[in-house]
Task: inverse folding
Protein backbone atom coordinates (compact mmCIF):
# COMPACT_ATOMS: atom_id res chain seq x y z
CA UNK A 1 0.00 0.00 0.00
CA UNK A 2 1.33 3.40 -1.02
CA UNK A 3 0.53 6.31 1.24
CA UNK A 4 0.46 9.86 -0.09
CA UNK A 5 0.19 13.07 1.87
CA UNK A 6 -0.39 16.46 0.30
CA UNK A 7 0.64 19.74 1.88
CA UNK A 8 1.02 23.39 0.99
CA UNK A 9 -2.57 24.40 0.47
CA UNK A 10 -4.11 27.48 2.01
CA UNK A 11 -5.66 30.86 1.39
CA UNK A 12 -3.97 33.12 -1.13
CA UNK A 13 -4.92 36.34 -2.86
CA UNK A 14 -5.52 36.46 -6.62
CA UNK A 15 -2.21 36.79 -8.41
CA UNK A 16 -0.34 35.00 -5.65
CA UNK A 17 1.54 31.71 -5.64
CA UNK A 18 1.48 28.44 -3.75
CA UNK A 19 3.61 25.33 -3.90
CA UNK A 20 1.92 22.05 -3.21
CA UNK A 21 3.89 18.97 -2.25
CA UNK A 22 2.93 15.33 -2.09
CA UNK A 23 5.15 13.02 -0.11
CA UNK A 24 4.98 9.29 -0.67
CA UNK A 25 5.77 6.21 1.36
CA UNK A 26 7.73 4.90 -1.63
CA UNK A 27 10.40 6.33 -3.84
CA UNK A 28 8.71 8.49 -6.45
CA UNK A 29 11.16 6.99 -8.93
CA UNK A 30 9.03 3.84 -8.81
CA UNK A 31 6.05 5.69 -10.23
CA UNK A 32 5.26 5.61 -13.94
CA UNK A 33 3.22 8.78 -13.82
CA UNK A 34 2.56 11.34 -11.12
CA UNK A 35 -0.21 13.89 -11.36
CA UNK A 36 -2.27 16.52 -9.62
CA UNK A 37 -6.02 16.71 -9.86
CA UNK A 38 -8.52 19.09 -8.36
CA UNK A 39 -12.17 19.17 -7.49
CA UNK A 40 -14.05 22.39 -7.04
CA UNK A 41 -17.33 22.55 -5.17
CA UNK A 42 -20.13 21.08 -7.25
CA UNK A 43 -17.79 19.96 -10.04
CA UNK A 44 -16.13 16.76 -11.11
CA UNK A 45 -12.52 16.04 -10.34
CA UNK A 46 -10.27 17.15 -13.18
CA UNK A 47 -6.68 16.61 -14.19
CA UNK A 48 -4.47 19.63 -13.54
CA UNK A 49 -1.03 18.36 -14.48
CA UNK A 50 0.77 15.08 -15.09
CA UNK A 51 4.41 14.08 -15.39
CA UNK A 52 5.65 10.75 -16.70
CA UNK A 53 8.82 8.93 -15.73
CA UNK A 54 10.17 10.00 -19.13
CA UNK A 55 9.68 13.66 -18.31
CA UNK A 56 6.63 14.26 -20.47
CA UNK A 57 4.22 16.78 -19.01
CA UNK A 58 0.54 17.41 -19.59
CA UNK A 59 -1.33 20.45 -18.32
CA UNK A 60 -4.94 21.44 -18.30
CA UNK A 61 -5.43 24.39 -20.65
CA UNK A 62 -6.73 26.40 -17.70
CA UNK A 63 -3.39 26.18 -15.88
CA UNK A 64 -0.86 25.88 -18.71
CA UNK A 65 1.78 28.58 -18.41
CA UNK A 66 0.95 29.18 -14.74
CA UNK A 67 1.50 25.83 -13.02
CA UNK A 68 4.56 23.60 -13.06
CA UNK A 69 4.65 19.98 -11.98
CA UNK A 70 7.89 18.40 -10.84
CA UNK A 71 9.10 15.33 -9.00
CA UNK A 72 12.08 14.28 -6.99
CA UNK A 73 12.92 11.07 -5.24
CA UNK A 74 10.51 11.56 -2.39
CA UNK A 75 7.79 13.96 -3.51
CA UNK A 76 5.70 15.42 -6.26
CA UNK A 77 5.33 19.18 -6.40
CA UNK A 78 2.98 21.63 -8.03
CA UNK A 79 4.14 25.22 -8.28
CA UNK A 80 1.09 27.39 -8.84
CA UNK A 81 1.59 30.96 -10.00
CA UNK A 82 -0.75 33.81 -10.91
CA UNK A 83 -3.58 32.13 -9.09
CA UNK A 84 -7.15 33.10 -9.88
CA UNK A 85 -10.38 32.46 -7.95
CA UNK A 86 -11.25 29.69 -10.40
CA UNK A 87 -8.28 27.72 -9.06
CA UNK A 88 -10.08 27.31 -5.75
CA UNK A 89 -10.50 23.59 -5.15
CA UNK A 90 -9.38 20.55 -3.24
CA UNK A 91 -6.13 19.37 -4.84
CA UNK A 92 -5.24 15.70 -4.93
CA UNK A 93 -1.99 13.96 -5.71
CA UNK A 94 -2.03 10.75 -7.74
CA UNK A 95 0.78 8.28 -8.23
CA UNK A 96 0.61 5.42 -10.70
CA UNK A 97 2.78 2.43 -9.93
CA UNK A 98 2.44 -0.30 -12.50
CA UNK A 99 -1.29 -0.71 -13.04
CA UNK A 100 -2.26 0.69 -9.66
CA UNK A 101 -3.29 4.24 -8.86
CA UNK A 102 -2.92 5.78 -5.43
CA UNK A 103 -4.53 8.97 -4.15
CA UNK A 104 -3.84 11.32 -1.31
CA UNK A 105 -6.49 12.87 0.91
CA UNK A 106 -6.20 16.28 -0.70
CA UNK A 107 -5.15 19.77 0.29
CA UNK A 108 -7.45 22.74 -0.03
CA UNK A 109 -6.54 25.81 -2.03
CA UNK A 110 -8.64 28.94 -1.74
CA UNK A 111 -7.97 31.96 -3.91
CA UNK A 112 -9.79 35.01 -2.63
CA UNK A 113 -9.12 38.64 -1.78
Result:
Amino acid sequence: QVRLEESGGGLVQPGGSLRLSCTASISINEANTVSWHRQAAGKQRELVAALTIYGRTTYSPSVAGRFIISRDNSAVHLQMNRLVPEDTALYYCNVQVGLLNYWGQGTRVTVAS
